[in-house]
């Protein structure tokens, strides 16, 4: 915050309606923020589960290929 804008803040008079309106706006913003964070965490969990599943599949495939190599010898 700039020092020049501090007197402007004190010059403004906030009515009770302004305070209620600002509180409602902040509440709405926090609601959207919580939705966004929930979606981000859900995407992260799905991604991690997908990668774990893929890693298990690759381990099974490697074991299968090793078994095939042992059978050839």
Shape: rod-shaped
Q: How would a textbook summarize the main sheet?
A: none
Low-confidence parts, pLDDT < 50 over ≥5 residues? none
Number of domains: 1
Beta strand count: 0
Radius of gyration: 29 Å
- Secondary-structure element order, N to C: HH
Structural class: mainly alpha
Helical region count?
Answer: 2
Commentary on this structure:
- The chain is mostly helical and 73 residues long.
- The protein contains two helices and no strands.
- The protein has one domain.
- The chain has helices at residues 6-11, 16-72.
- The mean pLDDT is 86.
Brief account:
Helices cover 86% and strands 0% of the residues. It is an all-alpha fold.
Task: Looking at this protein, list some descriptive labels.
73 residues, mainly alpha, 2 helices, rod-shaped
Draw up the topology in text.
Layout: H1 6-11, H2 16-72
